[in-house]
Amino acid sequence: MNAATLGLHRIGYEVRSYLRAPDAVFFTFLFPVIMLALFSVAFGSSPDIQAGPGASVDYATYYLPGLVATGFLLSGTQALGVDIAGERSDGTLKRLGGTPLPVLSYFTGKIGMVLVTSIAQTALLLVVASTVFGVDLPTDGGAWARFAGLMLLGVATACVLGIAVSALPREGRRATATIVPIVLVLQFISGVYLPFTQLPDWLQTIAGVFPLRWMASGMRSVFLPDAFASAEPGGTWHLGLGALVLAAWLVVGAVACLLTFRWNRRDS
């Protein structure tokens, strides 16, 4: 079989392996749904969030965009980084390196798994938000086209960063302790749980360097009324700048993958 066919077979294998890992399913696949439920119930009796006269949304609607973006980072960067680091540590990569499996097919399987699970995760999140918490989803085709573009770019960026950060832990058992805190901090400084403009200016500047801030604001442009752009720095969504930052991270991550990925552990 050629590399493409092997890659397709790897996608099926990786998806089955992912779904058979309860910790991965709970802490990555279901995490955004659980957080949406917690915020919606906790603030269910609170007044709606205002963004000017006649523009308000409930808390479920407000938190949905950030949690959609967080799902991409969890599935791509966190889950993929921990998974590959574990495979490197337990010798799985070394054994695969001794087979005819091309690196491209291996990457295709991993990235394809993230794409499949991200689509399923996002669909589940949107269904729960709409049917359980009454979130009004966009009806404009342009908004959904923007959503699809942001999703593809966000997932691709998260995947290459996940492959790159998998080289950080020297042992697989340390992968979770190394990678999860990075992802958690990015969630708090990127406008997922706190209004972005309420953060100190210096923290907004730091967050603006990383992709989650732009994935979250891009998703807010899809799911929130246009009036909420006034709550963003500069009073606009900055979609063009966000796309450039994500594209830059995609390139940086791809280069880092080429420089750091190897079948064997660094100390082997």
From TrEMBL:
InterPro entries: ABC2_TM (IPR013525), ABC2_TM_bact-type (IPR047817), ABC_2_transport (IPR000412), Nod_factor_ABC_transporter (IPR051784). Residues 23-264 form the ABC transmembrane type-2 domain. Its main location: membrane. The chain crosses the membrane at residues 24-43, 63-85, 111-135, 147-168, 175-196, 237-261. Belongs to the ABC-2 integral membrane protein family. It comes from the Bacteria. This is Transport permease protein. The keyword Lyase does not apply. It is found in: Cell membrane; Membrane. It is a multi-pass membrane protein. It holds the Pfam family ABC2_membrane. The keyword Transmembrane helix applies. Keywords: Antibiotic resistance, Cell membrane, Membrane, Transmembrane, Transmembrane helix, Transport.
